[in-house]
């Protein structure tokens, strides 16, 4: 699919076209009239019946079947829906242990002990949608509405840089005021802020879906990942939780990343909000979405997120189907096994305890020192005020505390942004997602960015422990790169910054 295909003879932008390949020929099959889909190219590619049938066909897997699937995961091959359904239904304690053991091994083998760190920056909470689970929904008149001014964006970014952050995700409600031009403007504003040695090297976005032209405008501002969560892939449940506003349109949201990819954004993140529908269904639907993007565009999502619903202002919790901690960790382990090379994100919605466990079995990216109150970083708010937030956070440790904990447990905290800046994204990233790449590039780059953090922001005890960890990790590197990395670490100690492979 080339850019030339996106314009018609008179120059106007075409609707997105999904190329249905042999590999993916089951799509699209879901065509309910009630979604009033004007253009068949916008037909949802999720078939709820296909997912339900797959789950029920594999309702009682044998240990042998489970072991066959685990062996495929050990070969680092992406699992099919059928294979994932076998793991989802393998719920006995013995099978669960096997799933977690292999997920832990795979995580270590592919990702090493590196954890990527980022922070969310909430730009504005005006919203015209009425999502029943969210504190920002239009019907919640008790929430305090705010959009950061440019000066405030600068202040927030400076505060984040002064804490050591290099990667942000900007978050917005859905509102006409937050159009593509505005979002692009906020991204550029963030990139311009430099405080001491600090700078934001990668700005990701979590915002409402756009048309192709809108995505092009946002891409031109130099974003990293465009992330959008389908919330629930079950269209009937989706209807029940999205009462009014543009977000009611399931199909438009589901096909958002098709349009992003058509517009040339080759780095996208998907997700589902766990607690609206059955987690087993959502897990398989996420894999279907991965499969759709790979089949149509040759690129899977860079990341998958799986937030669980948390308390929010004036939200009626009785509507939800909570996912318990045991199944949540099992779900993360299955995702790790199903998509070995896709980044898995777990935010501070979850407690320190759950995040630590989730990192063992699959999670590769977490946020640190997050404040989701609008303007919360510069004001350094400590107590949470739910009337100013979208939902309640459960891990309020500072970035430094999180880094100290990671270091103590032998994880390498990473602020690496090298791939995105070297053009190793999208299709190119897929080429690099081969065994050994992460160890050859990601681990050294993680060490280099950790060294920058230690020099510029760490307090004394952490500095010492951090450099000890770096020395230990250096020893583990292949001879071919150890000397290069050691030389760059020395340059960082002497004041150079932004060195990467
Ligand atoms: N407004 C945009 C949208 O809805 O896509 C973007 C940002 S929204 C602020 C980010 C995500 O927060 C949503 O996609 C949803 O999954 C999640 N969220 C909303 N309410 C939540 C709650 N009560 N607990 C946990 N996550 C929630
Ligand atoms: Fe608005 Fe997003 Fe919250 Fe829905 S989830 S109410 S679109 S901010």
Q: Count of helices?
A: 20
Rg value: 22 Å
Using DSSP, what is the number of strands?
11
Structural class: alpha/beta
Ions, cofactors and other ligands present here are: S-adenosylmethionine, iron/sulfur cluster
Tell me, rounded to a whole number, the average pLDDT.
88
General description of the model:
This protein has 501 residues and is of the alpha/beta class. The chain is 45% helix and 9% strand. Helix 12 links the parallel strand 8 and strand 9. Helix 4 packs across helix 12 (325-338), helix 15 (399-408) packs across helix 19 (460-476) and helix 18 (437-456) packs antiparallel against helix 19. The radius of gyration is 22 Å and the shape is globular. Bound molecules: S-adenosylmethionine and iron/sulfur cluster.
Quick summary:
By secondary structure, the protein is of the alpha/beta class. Helices cover 45% and strands 9% of the residues. It is built from 20 helices and 11 strands.
Summarize the topology:
Blueprint: H1 48-57, H2 63-74, H3 81-89, H4 93-111, E1 114-124, H5 150-163, E2 167-172, H6 180-192, E3 194-195, E4 198-199, E5 202-206, H7 212-220, E6 226-227, H8 235-241, H9 250-254, H10 256-262, E7 268-271, H11 279-297, E8 303-305, H12 325-338, E9 343-346, H13 352-361, E10 365-367, H14 376-379, H15 399-408, E11 412-414, H16 418-421, H17 426-432, H18 437-456, H19 460-476, H20 479-493
Parallel strand pairs: 1-2, 1-10, 1-11, 2-5, 5-6, 6-7, 7-8, 8-9, 9-10
Antiparallel strand pairs: 3-4
Helix pairs in contact: 1-3, 1-11, 2-4, 3-11, 3-12, 4-12, 6-7, 12-13, 15-19, 18-19, 18-20
The protein binds S-adenosylmethionine and iron/sulfur cluster (SF4).
